[in-house]
Amino acid sequence: MTAITQNPIPPSVDPDLLAAFQDVATATISDCLDRMPVLSGLRPFHREGQLIGTAFTVQVRAGDNLAIHQALETARRGDVIVVDGGGDLSRALVGDIMKAIAESRGIAGFVIDGAVRDTGAFAASDFPCYARAATPRGPFKAGPGASNLPVCIGGWTVNPGDVVVGDADGVVTFPPRIAPTLIEAVRAQAVREAEVLGLIRSGRYDGRYARPANG
Fold first, then answer.
1. pLDDT per position as a tens digit, 78-101
2. Distance between CA atoms of residues 38 and 110, nearest Å
3. Known binding positions for substrate
4. Closest Cα partner for 106 from 12, 174, 177?
5. Where are the domains of the chain?
6. What is the tens place of the pLDDT at every residue in 171-213?
7. Residue list, annotated binding site
8. Of 62, 182, 39, the residue nearest 111 (C-alpha)
9. What is the CATH number of domain 4-176?
10. Side-chain half-sphere of 93: how many Cα atoms within 13 Å?
11. Which pTM was predicted?
């Protein structure tokens, strides 16, 4: 068995800050950050519900989940286990057992750049889990791996301690230091979109929303 490098755990994101992003759509967050902070290619495997918490990042060898097991021993309530599995789909990195462990310890959810299994258990649960695909094939447990270091998932770098938000569309992350400015932009965007929807429903929409860079 190869040792796992465990770097210092970053501070948890302020619960009041996280609460400000409760029920905020990932699409709106992405739009307000130049459509950049998206972990492309991941989809939800759970039944429903928002993911929100502090990034506890993990890097693993393809198809090996030893570092994830160790992360579950040290992660805090409200942390999101964000796993850089290199996009490998040959073996599942988490399944029902690890889901049960995570839930029992108050982990906020899984974000897996790789595959999962026991998808029926995730589909019947509101415990958030995002991944690329599913396979019944189980993982190695030999390492190496590391935790709480910058990882790249879907072309986006996630740093330990980042805010993680997920919904039916996918997952976005951002550093907590920009949250106060970001939430103001998000609220302004929500007002603008509500105005546009009102114009559409009243038959007065003139196409103005299509002119700026909005989707």
1. 999 999 999 999 999 999 999 999
2. 16
3. 95-98, 117
4. 12
5. 4-176
6. 999 999 999 999 999 999 999 988 999 889 998 888 766 645 4
7. 95-98, 117-118
8. 39
9. 3.50.30.40
10. 37
11. 0.93
